[in-house]
Amino acid sequence: MPTAFEERSLMHNFPLNRGSTYLIFMLLPTNQSSSHPNDLGGIIMHMADALVSPVVGGAFWALSSTLIGWSAKEISRENDPRKTPLMGVLGAFIFAAQMINFTIPGTGSSGHLGGGLLLAALLGPHRAFITLSSVLIIQCLFFADGGVLALGCNIFNIAFFPIFIAYPFIFRLIAGSALSPVRLAAGSIGAATAGLLMGASSVVLQTALSGVSDLPFTTFLLFMLPIHLVIGLVEGVATWAVVSFIMKTEPGLLTGHEQPGRPRFAIAAIALAALLALFLLSSFASSAPDGLEWSIIHTRNNKEVQRNRVPANTLSGMPGALLVLGAAGGAGLLCRPKRVGAAK
Amino acid sequence: MKGTDRSTLLVTAIFIVAVVSVPKFDLAAVTALGAYPVFLLTSSGTALRTLSGHLLKLSPFILFMAAGNLLLDRTPAMEFMGATFTGGMLSSAVILAKTTVTLSALLLITLSMPFHRICRALAELHLPDVLVTQLLLLYRYSWVLQEEASSMQRARNLRSFGRRGKELRRTAPLLGSLLMRTTGRAERIYRAMEARGFSGALLLEEPAAFSAGELGTTTLWALGFMMLRLIF
Question: Which among A37, A253, A333, A274 has a CA at the least distance from the CA of A152?
Fold first, then answer.
């Protein structure tokens, strides 16, 4: 017999603010739930299933799954069940903190806390990665942010860069262990900005490799980076402000997880090697049927080639496709359990 | 032959791969694959209004990418019933159609299956215990912290005047306080869980072997998706 909270999983009752995060698309109007009409965090951008190819989606699934498995193994090795509920409530805190937005001077808009860097500072990289991955999984399942195949890309873009790259190599390096106010500010802002810029670049790379969008790589990159530079600075200042508050009130929270001597450079080297391999593999995988034709079409504007690429039955096949939909709907009605109808 | 929650998740994953593998201009194939979410919709008895309400919140990023294709690829691609269609028209329609069918399938699964069952199915699919426990705890405490954040937000709004009083220097201590309360709550939760025998994982059952029913259900659906891809 499920408990009351278990039965509350109906998505339309899920209480959380949909706005999450890190890669935010500012120029389009938002219809997301946000407590402020101009909230930057209310306008979000995740990679979506419709924009990734199976090769790219699968490769990043493999990469993110490996990172999750490795992080879970490290956590199991630590064998500290005390931190398990802390991870759960901090994940919930990331959602809740995004409800409380702040004004951004001179812009007329507002922002909210991101979370990746803060989680890494509070929990350490492995637990932070699992926590942020769980937040992204909830967003994928309940808010349809991104999609299942794109989940690997989103975990990599949004969680990997701030937690495994920006936190150890920028935040820890600049802020050091003494955590002086100036170094803390420089570390927070630098790491948050760098994490976001790396994530945004990765989105552009994944989109270009997938070959679904017609946006040229350089144009898309030049469009994304300035936006995410601004958002990164805002998120960095917010992270710095919260970390400073913790430093004054409960500094033990920031230092309890330190694990000197972890092979961090090895992690980065493996990730970069994986990215390079992905780039090469995807070029092979997509260039045979698509890349060559694409370049011919766009460099010579060859209408005949374009015509040949479009399946002849793509529109004439629509009546048949709609017939299939009708048949599936009918089959669904036949398979529908009687109690569902009775409950209504 | 009867599937389980585990096979439902597997079939949905196969479906998403099938949709994503449809070429850039093939609108009919994506539409035909929409049979799976349509089947889920009618068999689960989910109200269409509930589903469409969530679909209308399509990511701005998707809309932007679809609009980009529409504007950048204006090469006439085909003529149908006297009208000329550009490559951009077709590819942007395919992006929107792929988004709609994949998100519909995902939303229908979460609408019709309680979250603890989804987590149990994920554990049966050998997701790490740490992640499954984290998902269950995150889901549980989101409700609690949401209420807490909501009352803090309301209290601050009542004490501020328009945008004044909502600056970061005033909001940061608020967020910090929420964080302190959160960590305090985690400590109490841990003590309560420890008193009840918690040892690191919430789901302790060993996953059962993949049954013939599950295998048959998954294979049938996979063959169905393959057939639709071959026909359209």
Answer: A274
Q: Is the ipTM of this complex over 0.85?
A: no
Q: What values do phi and psi take at B84, rounded to 5? A: -95, 130
Tell whether the model's pLDDT for residue A316 goes beyond 70.
Answer: yes
Burial label, A68 (beta-carbon count in 10 A; 0-12, 13-18, 19+): buried
Q: Which segments in chain B show pLDDT lower than 50?
A: none
Nearest to A102 among B54, B114, B166 (CB): B166
As a whole-number percent, the residues of chain A with pLDDT over 90 amount to 17
Token reading at B115: 């979250």
Which residues 96-115 of chain A have a CB within 8 Å of chain B? 96-97, 99-103, 105, 110, 113
pLDDT at A270: 60
Helix axes A264-286, A54-78, angle to 10 degrees: 160
Residues of chain B contacting residue A7, judged by C-beta atoms under 8 Å apart: 114
> How far is residue A63's CA from residue A61's CA, in Å, rounded to a whole number?
5
Pairing of strands B76-80, A102-103: unpaired
- Quick: pLDDT tens for A52-93: 888 899 999 999 999 999 999 999 888 887 888 888 888 988
Residues 76-105 of B with CB under 8 A from A: 76-78, 80, 85, 87-88, 90-91, 94-96, 98-99, 102-103
- In this structure, which amino acid lies at residue A316? S
> Which pTM does this prediction carry?
0.79
For residue B161, the cross-strand partners are: B164
Output the pLDDT for position A46: 74
Interface of B with A in 151-180 (CB under 8 A): 152-153, 156, 163, 166-176, 178-180
Min distance B116 CA to chain A CA atoms (Å): 6
Mutant choice from B51, B72, B110, B147 vs A, greatest count of A C-beta within 10 A: B110
Q: pLDDT tens for residues A247-283?
A: 888 877 776 555 544 545 556 666 666 666 655 555 5
- Asked whether the beta carbons of B25 and A306 are under 8 A apart, the reply is no
Q: At what angle do helices B48-55 and B87-112 cross, to 10 degrees?
A: 130
| Partner residues linked to B76 by β-bridges | B86
- Radius of gyration from C-alpha coordinates of chain A: 23
The per-residue pLDDT for A37 is 40
- Which of A10, A130, A332 has the CB atom closest to B134's CB atom? A130
Exposed, middle or buried by CB within 10 Å (0-12, 13-18, 19+), for B181? middle
